[in-house]
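Deviation from plan, reported transparently: S-adenosylmethionine complex.
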Amino acid sequence: MTKEILESEVYNEMESVQNPNIVYPDYYLNPFHAYDEGNLSWLAAAEAEPATMSITRRAIPDAASLDEAIEVVRGNWLRVIEQHHLEYSGNSVVADILDIGCSVGWSTRFLANKFPSANITGLDLSPYFLAVAQYKEKNGSSSGKCIKWVHANGEDTGLPAKSFDIVSIAYVLHECPAIATVNLVKEAFRLLRPGGTIAITDNSPKSKKLQELSPVLFTLMKSTEPFLDEYYLLDLESALREAGFINVQTILTDPRHRTVTATVPH
Ligand SMILES: C[S@@+](CC[C@H](N)C(=O)[O-])C[C@H]1O[C@@H](n2cnc3c(N)ncnc32)[C@H](O)[C@@H]1O
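Because the crystal trials were delayed, the predicted structure below was used instead.
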C-alpha cells in the first residue's frame, strides 16, 4: 500500500490542499512515530493507512479478519455517535460533520458512509496526509458527496462558529500535549451548533488490555508518542464539562478504546 502511494500522482495534490499561511504548533515540529519530520513527510503519509489497519487488527485479536476488526472498532464508535446525537440533539439532524485530525481520511470516509446526506469536512495539520486523503478520494470508487479537506490547526480552525452538528476527534488526543487537547475541545464547542455532538475516540486509560501492556513496550511507545503520559493523566470528561459540554458519556467501544460523547447545550 505504501509503495502504491509513493509511486502514484499523489504529489500533484499538495498545492491544492496546502495552506501556505499555516503556523504549526511547536509540538508538531518534532520527530514523531519514529519519523524525523513527524507527520510532515510523504513516508508518514503513505504508511498511515496500513499502520491504522494493523492497530485495528491488534485491538481485536480474536477477529477472523481485518474487516471483522474494523466492524467492531469503527462500527461501535459510529453507533455510539449516532445514538448520542439521536438522544440529545433535540432534532437529530446531521447536516454538517467535521473530522478534526482526519489524517489520510479513513475516519472521514467512515463518517461519510454512516451519514450519507451530511456535508463532511476533514481537517488536519499535515498537508501530506491531506494530499493522500484527497488523492484516494479522487481515485476511489466512492459515489457519495465530495469531502472538503482543510489544512488547519484544530485548536484554532478559522471555520465559522456554530457550523457543525457533529465534531469527531478520532485517535488524535493521545498524540497531543494536554494544553492542545483543552484547546481542541474548546474549539469544537465553538464550532458546534446548539444540540451538536462532540465525539472523541482514543485509547482508554481504563482498558485492562492497555494497562497490562509490558512496561518495555509502553516505554517504546512513549519514545515515538511523547505525550502519552499527559494524555492518560488528563481528565477528559472534566475538560469537556469545563468547556461547557453537557451529557458527557464514556463508553469502552472495544477492549482498548473509549468513545467519549457530549452535547452543546441548547
Ligand atoms: C492517528 S491520526 C488520526 C487518525 C484518524 N482520525 C483515524 O481515525 O483514522 C492523528 C492525526 O491528528 C493530526 N493532528 C495532531 N494535532 C492536530 C491539530 N492540532 N490539529 C489538527 N490535526 C492534528 C495529525 O496530523 C494526525 O493526522
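Residues 101 and 124 are 5 Å apart (CA to CA). We consider this an acceptable substitute for the interim report.
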